[in-house]
Structures are given as structure tokens and as C-alpha cells.
């Protein structure tokens, strides 16, 4: 079956300005205290799928991407690709894209919905040597600059101009160069993706130092290699690209979503009886499983699965978020939910997005004892959280509130829930299959 892009995704975000017209806001109603057990399977990796879809702009030939999650962010990216002139067909988790003739301008109305749309800059510049894309603004997790992306494009020979809210890139030719993508908070994931996607069609050799080492970057590099790119070192902090004249179509399957899997691990640790997460890559989750082990949770780690069995109360821990392979910032909020009911004093320091603590004030409404000192939150575990109406502020904060609701006493209502549909495919259905009692209702 082919889904036309005129239709909203299965779980469309409840934004009044949506092009599908006003939609009712939804809320989640969670009855806490029900132990989880059973098996759950994470979807394809959102943060890998988004740049992979953008990379299809690099060729005129058709590309096929499997295991694409059904998320509103993915739908936005497909809309942007359609707007740029690509033919997009989606059938279940498989997306076929043919970007034979493309435009190079993406307007604010489309890109404002999702910050990650910035990753079309690299492929547009690589293929067409020009791009005009609306500049992403900040978001609740903090300032979201793209200076490192732009530094990389400039190093390849592009002129960069910011005008009327747009980033405009232009190059008569792109020439390989050395570029260092290390910033104040480490490397940049989408910045590495962007420079990589421009460099594959540049003349000569590009050396990206301070490259992000995330598995999502490796997945993108593997896809680009299938398309004919010459790339070495993906997954390390130095990536070397030998530019080629053109790329061809390719087929690829997106890696499993390590953050969704990690969220289920945290859910299992805090509310689980016996939960198995399958079809994941445990090597992508070492920092998370190490943290859970240190916190006293018993994990059975298989080749492509992890089982968490309840063994009573955990121990307090110290977590510091860092770029991969360090503890992921995208798991910080979920761990705060777990530590909120872990006896003793835990600390969580956010080194990637120092302001990313919107979930803390909402968790405090549920009885969590936590206070912020700069980019560190100090959490004293309580025996029990109590249900309260709370508000989701961003994707991972929403996930943390769901976890808190799973073990709170009473009925938790989470409003502004559309955030979670950006990054979790049917999280309510998946948790309900494990025994949770979550209802999605009109707010
Ligand atoms: C990606 C992920 C996001 C995750 C983040 C960090 C996607 C779609 N999103 O976002 O879920 O939380 O990695 O793992 O893949 N920075 C600069 N200048 C830049 C770019 C970034 O200073 O040009 C800073 C950021 O403000 C932040 C840090 O670098 O402090 C890391 O950001 P970055 O890795 O770029 O995040 P994203 O790639 O946008």
C-alpha cells in the first residue's frame, strides 16, 4: 500500500497551525503502579533515519530505505523532500525516494516544524552547490546553533550568508579540505552528517576531525558508501572522505533506535517485573546499561536483546552526559525519572545541553525531591511519586514523565503530549502491551 503524503501521519502532532488544520490536543492518562512484563521491540532509529532520508537528495536515482519509524518528525522530513521535488512513496516502514530534479529552497513553514530539517543543507550543497533553508531557532532544551555546520561548509568552499531568517549557501565548486567540528560541548551529530553529505561530492579529500562518533553517523556513512561514496573512519573522531563525481541509488535498513530501547530499559528498571527488549544493538547502549548496572539493576545482555528482571530497590549513582560513547543526553530525563525513586542521593550532570532540565520541575510536582545547581541536578530518591497533572515540554522530557507516571501512585495526566509522537512510535501501545495502563484522550 502506498501512503500519499497529503495525509497526516498515524499520530499527528496536535498543533493548531498544522497544515492539516486545527487538531485537538491530546493528553496521556496513566494509571500508575502496574508492574511491566513481556517483550518490546524498538522501532527504526529516528535520528539515523532523518539524515538517511535527506541523503537520498544526493542522487537522481531511486533509493529504498527500510525500517523507517512512523513518527511525525519523519513525516515532516518526507514533506520537505516532496517540496524539494522528490517523488516519495511510503508503504509501512519502507520509503522509496527518487530525487531526479530538485529545488534548493526549503521555506520556513516546512522546516520550522523540526530542527533536524537543517540536515538537508549538506546534500543540497553537495549536489546542487547551493541551498536556501530557514535557520532553525532555539528550542526548550537550549540554544541550538549551527555554527559548526557552517564552518564545515565554508571549509569546503561554500559562501555562507544569513539573510531574512534563511541560511544561504553557494559554491561554484566544492573542494575537499580539513575541518574540525569540535565545539564547546563536544562534536556535533547533525553537523558531522551535514559536512559528510557535502564532502562526498566535493573534489578531492576531506578530513573531518572532531567528528561525532554516534552510531547514527555510522549508519549514514554506511548508506553513503552503498551509494558509491568513499568514506573511512566513520564511528571515530576522524572521518576521511574521498570525493566522487556522482552517487547512485541504494537500499538500506535503518538501525534500531537506541534511545527508544534505552527508554524501555529505564521503564523496566523502575516499573518492571521481567521485561525483554529485543531487536536492538546492545553495543550502542553500553553507557546506559553500565549506568543501570551501577544503579543495582540486573540485566541479561544478549546479542540483540536485553532482559531486565526486577530485583527490588536500586542504588544512587552519578551520571554525566557526554557525546557518544558517553552517556547520551537523550537518556538523561528518563534516568532522572528512575533516580527519583532510587533510595539515596544521585547526581545527573548535563554536559551536552546544559539547560535540558524542563522535566525536573514537572517531576517535582509529582513529589520528586530534586534541585538544580547549574547543569547538575541533585536527586534524593523518594519511596513513592504521586500522580499529578503535568505538562510535556519536549520529546525526552515527555518520555521521562511517562516513566514517572508508570510508578506514581494514582492517575497522572500528561498534556502537550504531541512531543512524544515526534520520537516514539506508539509508545502507549508498546507499554500497554507490557501491562501498563495508558490511555490517549482528548485534552
Ligand atoms: C542530535 C540529536 C539529538 C541529540 C543530540 C546530542 C538528531 C536529529 N538529533 O542533535 O537528539 O540530543 O544530537 O546527542 O540527530 N552545537 C554547537 N554548534 C553547532 C552544533 C551544535 O555549539 O553548530 C552544540 C549544541 O548546542 C550542543 C552540542 O553542540 O550543545 C551537541 O549538539 P549536536 O550534536 O549538534 O546536536 P544535534 O545534532 O542537533
Overall description:
- The chain is an alpha/beta fold.
- Helices cover 29% and strands 25% of the residues.
- The chain has helices at residues 46-55, 72-83, 108-111, 121-128, 147-155, 189-199, 215-226, 258-271, 286-294, 332-339, 358-365, 395-407, 418-421, 427-433; strands spanning 26-31, 36-40, 62-66, 87-91, 94-98, 105-106, 130-134, 159-163, 166-170, 178-180, 205-209, 230-232, 238-242, 251-253, 272-278, 298-301, 305-309, 318-320, 345-349, 369-373, 376-380, 389-391, 411-415, 437-442.
- Strands 22-23-1-24 form a four-stranded mixed sheet, with helices on one face. A four-stranded mixed sheet has the order 2-15-17-16.
- A hairpin with a 2-residue loop joins strand 8 (159-163) and strand 9.
- Helix 4 runs parallel beside helix 6 (189-199).
- The chain is elongated and about 65 Å long.
- The two termini are 32 Å apart.
- The model is unreliable at 1-23 (pLDDT under 50).
- The structure holds uridine-diphosphate-N-acetylglucosamine.
Distance between the termini: 32 Å
Beta strands, count: 24
- Which spans have pLDDT < 50 for at least 5 consecutive residues? 1-23
Largest sheet at a glance? 4 strands, mixed
Which cofactors or ions or other ligands sit in this model? uridine-diphosphate-N-acetylglucosamine
> In what order do the strands lie side by side in the largest sheet?
22-23-1-24
Tally of alpha and pi helices? 14
Mean pLDDT: 92
Shape: elongated
Amino acid at each position: 500500500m502506498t501512503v500519499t503524503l497529503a495525509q497526516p501521519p498515524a499520530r499527528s502532532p496536535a498543533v493548531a497551525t498544522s497544515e492539516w488544520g486545527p487538531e485537538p490536543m491530546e493528553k496521556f492518562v496513566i494509571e500508575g503502579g502496574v508492574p511491566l512484563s513481556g517483550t518490546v521491540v524498538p522501532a527504526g532509529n529516528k535520528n539515523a533515519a532523518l539524515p538517511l532520508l535527506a541523503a537520498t537528495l544526493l542522487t537522481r536515482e531511486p533509493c529504498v530505505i527500510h525500517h523507517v519509524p512512523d513518527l511525525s518528525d519523519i513525516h515532516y522530513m518526507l514533506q520537505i523532500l516532496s517540496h524539494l521535488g522528490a517523488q516519495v512513496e511510503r508503504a509501512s516502514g519502507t520509503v522509496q525516494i527518487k530525487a531526479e530534479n530538485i529545488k534548493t529552497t526549503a521555506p520556513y513553514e516546512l522546516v520550522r516544524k523540526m530542527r533536524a530539517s537543517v540536515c538537508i543543507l549538506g546534500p543540497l550543497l553537495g549536489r546542487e552547490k547551493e541551498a536556501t533553508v530557514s535557520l532553525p531557532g532555539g528550542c526548550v532544551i537550549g540554544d541550538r546553533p549551527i555554527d559548526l555546520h557552517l564552518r564545515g561548509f565554508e571549509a569546503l568552499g561554500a559562501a555562507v550568508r544569513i539573510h531574512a531568517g534563511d541560511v544561504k549557501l553557494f559554491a561554484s565548486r566544492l573542494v575537499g579540505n580539513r575541518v574540525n567540528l569540535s565545539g564547546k560541548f563536544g562534536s556535533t551529530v547533525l553537523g558531522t552528517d551535514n559536512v559528510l553529505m557535502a564532502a562526498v561530492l566535493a573534489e578531492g579529500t576531506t578530513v573531518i576531525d572532531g567528528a561525532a562518533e554516534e552510531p547514527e553517523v555510522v549508519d549514514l556513512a554506511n548508506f553513503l558508501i552503498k551509494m558509491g561514496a568513499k568514506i573511512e573512519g566513520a564511528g571515530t573522531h576522524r572521518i576521511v572522505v574521498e570525493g566522487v563525481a556522482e552517487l547512485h541509488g541504494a537500499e538500506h535498513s535503518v538501525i534500531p533506535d537506541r534511545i527508544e530501547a534505552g527508554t524501555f530499559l529505564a521503564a523496566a528498571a523502575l516499573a518492571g517485573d521481567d521485561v525483554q527488549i529485543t531487536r536492538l544493538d546492545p553495543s550502542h547502549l553500553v553507557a546506559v546499561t553500565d549506568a543501570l548496572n551501577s544503579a543495582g539493576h540486573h540485566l541479561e545482555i544478549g546479542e540483540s536483546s536485553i532482559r531486565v528482571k526486577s530485583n527490588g530497590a536500586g542504588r544512587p549513582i552519578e551520571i554525566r552526559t557526554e557525546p557518544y560513547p558517553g552517556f547520551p543526553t537523550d537518556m538523561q530525563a528518563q534516568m532522572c525519572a528512575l533516580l527519583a525513586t532510587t533510595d539515596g542521593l544521585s547526581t545527573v550532570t548535563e554536559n551536552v545541553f546544559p539547560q535540558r532540565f524542563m522535566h525536573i520541575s514537572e517531576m517535582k510536582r509529582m513529589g520528586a525531591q530534586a534541585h538544580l545547581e547549574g547543569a547538575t541536578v541533585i536527586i534524593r530518591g523518594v519511596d513513592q511519586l504521586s500522580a499529578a497533572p503535568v505538562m510535556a515540554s519536549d520529546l525526552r522530557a515527555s518520555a521521562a514523565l511517562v516513566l514517572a507516571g508508570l510508578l506514581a501512585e494514582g492517575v497522572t495526566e500528561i498534556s502537550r503530549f504531541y512531543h512524544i509522537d515526534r520520537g516514539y512510535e506508539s509508545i502507549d501501545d508498546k507499554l500497554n502491551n507490557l501491562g501498563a495502563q495508558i490511555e490517549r484522550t482528548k485534552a
